[in-house]
Amino acid sequence: MISFQKNIDLKAFNTFGIRAFARYFVTLKTPDDLHELFQSDLYRNEQHLIIGGGSNVLFTKDFDGLIIQNNIKGISTQSENDDNITVEVASGEVWHPFVLHCVNRNWGGVENLSLIPGTVGAAPMQNIGAYGVEIGEVIKKVVGINLASGEAYTFSREECAFGYRESVFKKELRGKFFISSVTLTLTKKNHRLSTQYGAINDTLHAHNITSPTIKNISDAVIEIRTSKLPDPTVLGNAGSFFKNPAITLQHYELLKKTHPTIPGYSIENQSVKVPAAWLIENCGWKGKRVGDAGVHQHQALVLVNYNAASGEEIFSLATNIRASVKEKFDVELVPEVNIV
Questions:
Q1: Of 88, 93, 165, 313, which one is the catalytic site residue?
Q2: What pLDDT, on a 0 to 100 scale, did the predictor assign at position 227?
Q3: In a shared domain, residues 248 and 285
Q4: If both were cysteines, with which of 77, 119, 147, 289 could 294 make a disulfide (CB 3.0 to 4.6 Å apart)?
Q5: What CATH number is attached to the domain comprising 89?
Q6: Active-site position among 114, 180, 240, 310
Q7: Is 240 a catalytic site residue?
Q8: pLDDT digits (tens, 9 = 90+) for 285-321
Q9: What whole-number distance in Å separates Cα of residue 72 and Cα of residue 49?
């Protein structure tokens, strides 16, 4: 039976460590809890927000409504043959332990996504990605519960409409579905290894690894991320705050004339993806601190809470960064983090 709490401090429920209060708060631990929630007066009468690990949200004020924390767990095998395994994962499972669960069983496809914070339910919503791999590549289906009717619907990979840090759940269906489970098809052998992005190859070579396993790749990603990104339990943050912007090839060529070292990666439709971290760093923000809000000294894409920054202060810093990047490069930065 679910238990509603009142006036709960959300500091422990968001990785920025921001103090903000929810008027009501409830934790879901089983699918039955979800059905009970839908029939409650609080759910019907109050605005609500679903969170998992709180790793992709910035609270800029108290939440005058119901915060729903998803803590529904479970991993089950749906089908298996000599080459592949299909597993269904409850959306409240924490992402990184699930990746380790797969790596330790030699199931390939998610090893490059090691150490990404958050829960499994957030993975398809955000189409999480790192080091040349996106979760949408291995998702078979997503089960969502319609928040208005309580009915379950199974979305195929195509219906999820995955894009760069995007999905149908962030656009047309934003706020309309509770993702209850994610089903992935992973390889058991003949893994498609991706080592060409970031510093993976350099890290493998440093350890004298020439024929990497998926565990080697996972370990390399963990080593790289640990060296570059702050631990949110030590320094409040939500990982990458901004998306890497895509600009036209013409715009990129113009920027190359005045900024010859600007990196860029060709993508579809004659567009170029430019690292947001490079833009931010070249506007002088890397390592800059304003009160208790700041830009991490080793990774300009990460905004941090040094101690007691408010959500408004973090948001103000992000707004100023966006304005300076727009002024210097005529590039719009878009937050990855959900601003509440």
A1: 165
A2: 86
A3: yes
A4: 289
A5: 3.30.465.10
A6: 240
A7: yes
A8: 999 999 999 999 989 999 999 989 999 999 999 999 9
A9: 16
